[in-house]
Amino acid sequence: MNKVEVMRDISDRYETCSRAMNERQRRHWAAGEALKLGRGGITLVSQALRISPNTIKRGMMEIASGESADADNRIRKRGGGRKPKT
Predict the structure, then answer these.
(1) Which of 4-18, 23-37, 62-76 has the lowest mean pLDDT?
(2) What's the pLDDT at 74?
(3) 31 lies in a domain?
(4) Is 4 helix (H, G, I), strand (E, B) or coil?
(5) What is the pTM of this model?
(6) N- to C-terminal Cα separation, the chain
(7) Are the C-beta atoms of 63 and 28 separated by less than 8 Å?
(8) Is 7 helix (H, G, I), strand (E, B) or coil?
(9) What one-character-per-residue DSSP string does 21-62 give?
């Protein structure tokens, strides 16, 4: 398979399952794909999915540290978002 076919394959698989995943799960999925590809995997996955390579690297670090995708059922840290006007 050449580079274009690999990128198309990754993109197609991502489109079929991405709507059912949250941010962390998407990050872990992309990291797993990059790890499977080996050298140059981060770049290929990044280009295929149009996401930052830093996002994929963060997913790799989370996987390496053993952090599960369902840890605490929170995606973002507490206290984030807009503060009340009052």
Answers:
(1) 62-76
(2) 66
(3) yes
(4) helix
(5) 0.76
(6) 58
(7) yes
(8) helix
(9) --HHHHHHHHHHHHHHH-TTHHHHHHHHHT--HHHHHHHHHH
Residue 85, φ and ψ in degrees, nearest 5: -70, -25
pLDDT in tens, 49-77: 999 999 999 999 998 988 665 555 667 77
| Count of domains forming the chain | 1
Angle, helices 41-49/3-17, rounded to nearest 10 degrees:
60
- At residue 19 the predicted structure's pLDDT band, cuts being 50, 70 and 90, is confident
Is the residue at 62 inside a domain?
yes
Q: Is residue 79 part of a domain?
A: no
**How far apart, in whole angstroms, are the C-alpha atoms of residue 75 and residue 12?**
25
- Domain range for 62: 3-68
Distance from C-alpha of 62 to C-alpha of 12, rounded to nearest angstrom = 24
